Structure formats: C-alpha cells, structure tokens
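User: Okay, second chain of the day. Same drill as before: sequence in, structure tokens out.
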Amino acid sequence: MPQTVDTETESMLRESVRAFVKKEVAPIAKKIDREDQFPVEVFRKMGKLGFLGVTIPEEYGGSAMGYRAQGIIEEELGYASASLGLSYGAHSNLCMDSIYRNGSPEIRETYLPKLCSGEWIGSLCLTEPESGSDALAMKTHAEKADGGWKITGSKTLITNAPLADIFVVYAKTGDSLSAFVALATDSGLSRGKKFDKMGMRGSPTGELFFDSMYIPDNRTLGAIGVGKDIIMSGLNLERVILSFIFIGLARRGIEMSVQYASSRKQGGKPIGDRELIQEKLAYMYTRYETSKMLCYRAVDEVSKDPMNVLSAASCILYTTEAAEYIAREALQIWGGMGYVSDSEVERLLRDAVLGQIGAGTTEIRKKLVGHELIKNYVKNGRLPE
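Assistant: Same drill. Structure tokens below.
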C-alpha cells in the first residue's frame, strides 16, 4: 500500500514550507497573478532554505530527500500560488533533476550548485510550434560540428523561458533524439515573446530560437541518440510532480468553499445547511482525498521506475480533472462574489485549467492509460496491481 502519511522528516519539511508560503507567498499571490510577474527574490529565498534541490545529493548543494519531498513542496505552493508551483517544477524537476539523472560528473558539478541555490533559474525545452502532443515529431535538429553540435530550430510555450539561465534542450540527431544543456549566454540562442496567459500568470512562458547555436560535446545529456528515453522518463516524473500542485489548489478550493458555506446566509440560514451545497462539498472532498492517494502511490512508483507510464498518466489524469471540478464547484458555491476578478476563487479556476493541457493533454493521458492497460493484460493475463 502507498504511504500517504508523512514521515517525521516529511512532516518537518511540510511545516517549514507551509510557514514559508504563509509568510512569503500568500501575501503576494494576488499581485503575482494580477501583474504577471515572477517573484524572483522569493524564489531565491527558496534556494537558500534548501527547497529547490530536494532530489539532488548534498555534494551538489541539494538535500537528497527525494520525489515525495518535491511533491510536498509543490502541494504547499499550489495551495497559495499554483503559478509559482509551476515554475518551481520546471526548475527543480524538469531541468535540475534531469541534469542530475542524465548529466556527466562535469555537468553536475558545474551547474547543479547554481540551480540548487537559486542563483540560476532552469527550464526545459520540448514543445515546438508543430509538435505539442506529438513531442517526438520535433523539427529542431543538431548537426555535428568541430568539438560539438550546432542546433537550429525553435521551441514554444516553454515555462521559465523568458528569464531562465540554463535550458535542457531536445533536438533531432539524425534519426534519433538527443538532449543538450544550453546556456542563455550561448551564441545563436535568442528569446521570443512572453505569452500573456489565461491562468498560471506569474509563471513566465515564452519562445526560444536557435540559430546554429553551438553546444560543446561536454554539454550533452546522456549519450547521443538516447533522447527519447530521457524524454519519456522525464515526462512520467513531471506528470506526477505536477499533479501535487493541483492537490494544493484543490485543498484551497475546498477550504474556501467550507468557509463561505458556513458564513454566507440565505433565508436566515447558512447556505451550508442546504443539502445541495453539502452534496457539492461531499464530492469535492472525496475527489480531493482520492487524488492524494493516487499521487502518493504514483510518486512512490515512479521513484522506483521512472518509466512507469501507467501510474504517472492515471495520476495526472484524475488529479487535474478533480482540481478543475473542485475549483468550478467552489465558484458555484461563492456565486457572483466568486466570479469577480478580485476573488481568489476565479484565479483557482483559471489556474486549474492548465492542469489538463500541460505535460500532455487529458486526451493523451487517456490514450496512455488505455494502451498500458491493454499491453499489461495481453502480456500477463490480468490487470496490473
């Protein structure tokens, strides 16, 4: 059975992150959204407190607490500012953790300490204008050059792209795919526009262009040609860690709904006394609790096997749908007051929508779950346990 209760160490981490979020993040969450500005100084404080490098060994500046710890941090960030949680995930999981898992000792020693401390901000570059869900159909390509590679192409809808210092970049190398570490200072790399988004405002999303960008051989991740495996294992980890943001968002939505239902009166009685409101709260809470169980099971599974597609896809499929449902019901409970732009409730709903688009759409997740179930049954004659 999955361990859904925090260990003593995890409880201490949660209390520490929760206190930080209450003091540093919650008071500016509305401003982050309204002004669409990433809180760089808050992010650097997270580095000083050791929150950024929880999956990285101490020798590189991390704390080696693992993916459950990363999930806990995401949950607490998601409760107050899902957008900060999104940028945290792109930095800590998509970029930094990938560099650790696939990088050479030289790459690890050079870049991980800067990422763990928050001195540098990281990003991962996969999506392209013509290859979103079909990420492996990318057109960005790398050609062998003297002592390295020259990369030409573009990436779009990249989290942290407008301000990142370091990027994990995927490109075609002949008939295969490979991964490279690019720096913002590399010749041939340029940033495009920053997108003005519906939700997750304050988590900067933008474009990158590569015009024969030169990457030396010592900045390849893994061997040339193994990029597909790096992508797939990274996506599984990303899907699980991203799910924890939406657990936090869902918890906030339920909390606000219970508070409002208890205080808002109609006909002289709190609306929470009405059975239709109680039904909404019951379904909201049940889906939230189910999401937590799925996420904790999935994070344990992908920690053991990053290629566990079924756990990762089913986890994010359910959790993000549940979060959007909870945010929508929260708005319904709050009524007109939830719909006004100053309301935190409407921000929860706008942020929740991204959950069914990022890291593979809901439709892709359904395809993955169905395919894995059939494959397992054909091979073993039973459903996976």
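The domain at 8-120 is CATH 1.10.540.10 (Butyryl-Coa Dehydrogenase, subunit A; domain 1).

User: Thanks, on to the next one.
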